[in-house]
Design a protein that fits this description.
The protein is an alpha+beta fold and 262 residues long. The chain has 6 helices and 10 strands. Strands 1-2-3 form a 3-stranded antiparallel β-sheet, covered by helices on one side. It has a 3-stranded antiparallel β-sheet with strand order 4-5-8. The chain has a two-stranded antiparallel sheet with strand order 6-7. Helix 2 packs parallel to helix 6 and helix 4 runs antiparallel to helix 5. The longest helix is centred in the N-terminal third of the chain and has 50 residues. The two termini are 43 Å apart.
């Protein structure tokens, strides 16, 4: 195992502590390794369960940290695709969009929803694209913001996300509002990875919407809405993957949904 990428603790196949080494210029890390190396086999045997539990906790934190990094990368892609939708609607180049864009995702989605009313978009397309924008600013953006901006606490068994916002909430229907802050939420790497899949699904749908917008701008009409894309606007809808039609591989990709979602 590697703790923080610098402290190496090796166990034999029988799970007994075998060796401790360090590769670091940090005097504290070096001293820790020297202290562990100086212990007798009996002392190491007593220490072994504590070290194994510590390593297990840090391994979970590493998985969670990696998932949060992947979420940030996938959100950056969605963010870029969201900006690209402005170009065909406003009939302006990328640099002009960059000058007017709002950094806030909810504000940009609201602006795009309003702009949909200014173009000759078929009702079915309008309803579906607006649903995608609602899902982006609601379900996805809110979850992403909390995961990225909240504090994390590593507890003995779980990783907890701490919502630092101070808000007035009613604990019960007949109770007065109370101030709440530092609210704890258990979190897992799997939960973050699921949000990444939702983000991937919505990003792919926005790219399809942008392709249709460009078709309208260049040819004067929208193409028929491929009904295989319709589930993407629903909350928690998650495409398994994208594929092309074998008979026409150069057409737009379409999503393949888990059973029961299509």
């Amino acid at each position: 195992f590697f703790l923080g990428g610098v402290l190496s603790i090796r166990f034999s196949t029988s799970s007994s502590l075998q060796s401790v080494s360090v590769m670091s210029d940090d005097p504290i890390e070096t001293q820790l390794a020297m202290t562990l190396a100086a212990l007798s086999p009996e002392e190491l045997a007593k220490l072994q369960p504590i070290l194994q539990e510590t390593l297990k906790r840090f391994e979970g934190a590493t998985q969670y940290s990696r998932a949060v990094g992947d979420l940030c990368a996938s959100w950056a892609w969605l963010d870029r695709v969201l900006d690209e939708i402005f170009e065909p609607i406003l009939d302006c180049p990328t640099e002009q969009v960059a000058c007017i864009r709002n950094e806030n995702t909810e504000a940009r989605c609201n602006m795009l929803s309003r702009l949909l009313h200014t173009i000759n978009i078929p009702a079915e397309w309008h309803s579906w694209v607006d649903g995608i924008l609602q899902r982006t600013r609601g379900e996805l953006a809110k979850q992403r913001n909390r995961i990225v901006h909240d504090a994390w606490v590593l507890d003995a068994q779980t990783i907890k996300r701490i919502d630092k916002r101070a808000m007035l909430r009613k604990p019960g229907a007949r109770e007065a509002k109370k101030l709440q802050f530092d609210v704890e939420h258990p979190e897992t790497a799997e939960g973050v990875e699921q949000l990444i899949q939702y983000t991937f699904t919505v990003t792919a749908a926005l790219r399809y919407a942008n392709w249709a917008n460009r078709q309208w701008r260049s040819e004067g009409r929208f193409p028929p809405l491929d009904r295989r894309w319709l589930p993407a606007s629903r909350q928690t809808a998650q495409a398994q993957y994208l594929r092309s039609d074998p008979e026409d591989p150069f057409q737009q990709l379409f999503p393949v949904w888990p059973e029961g979602q299509d």
